[in-house]
Amino acid sequence: MKKYLLIICMLIAISCQKKASVKETNIENSTLPKNENRIVETISEKNTDIESVQNIDRPKQSEIIKSKYDSKLLFGIWTYDPKGPHADFELTKKSFYVVDYDGDGDMPYIINQDTIRVYYNDYVSVGIIKNATKDTLKIDWDESGITNYVKWKG
Questions:
Q1: Distance between CA atoms of 60 and 25, rounded to whole angstroms?
Q2: What does the alpha-carbon distance between residue 154 and residue 100 come to, in Å, rounded to a whole number?
Q3: How large is the C-alpha radius of gyration of the chain?
Q4: Which residues form the signal peptide (predicted)?
Q5: How far apart are CA 124 and CA 52, in angstroms?
Q6: How far is CA 23 from CA 15, 18, 20, 26, 28, in A?
Q7: Cα(50)–Cα(46) distance, rounded to whole angstroms?
């Protein structure tokens, strides 16, 4: 009986040692989105709309300077996952509305030719509009690459 108890204790000790030796993930080498092209103008609390927090200078309203694509094709509710629980954003004349955003989801934007700049509270996201049709929108975002969106049918 003592032999069995000794063997069990040794197995537990060995298994505990293996867990302690598991290699920790280096955050610098993980597959997080690349941020080297992200324009960060000021540091602030992410996803907050508190007036006391200094955020980046954002345009007072959205603007389309000259678009390569018809605004009727750009405006709409878009998602990259049509089977997902919600859309990703709604693009209107007023704003780039981020769905499921913690705080005010209305982000001003500027479209010039094929470039869209979305002014979040603490950074600017830049995308190149590659294609726009009645049901699809293809944007090459600075931090996450090309995303193929479809019109939200929900």
A1: 42
A2: 15
A3: 23
A4: 1-20
A5: 20
A6: 15, 10, 9, 9, 14
A7: 10
pTM, full prediction:
0.64
- At 90-113, the pLDDT tens digits run 999 999 999 877 778 899 999 999
Across the beta sheet with 106-107, the strand order is 63-67, 109-113, 115-119, 124-132, 136-141, 145-151, 76-79, 89-91, 96-98, 106-107
- Per-residue pLDDT reduced to its tens digit, 21-51: 334 434 344 344 455 555 544 444 444 455 5
**Residue 152 CB partners (closer than 8 Å, separation 6+):** 76, 77, 78, 79, 82, 87
88 and 144 in contact (C-beta within 8 Å)? Answer: no
As a whole number of angstroms, the distance between CA 30 and CA 120 comes to 25
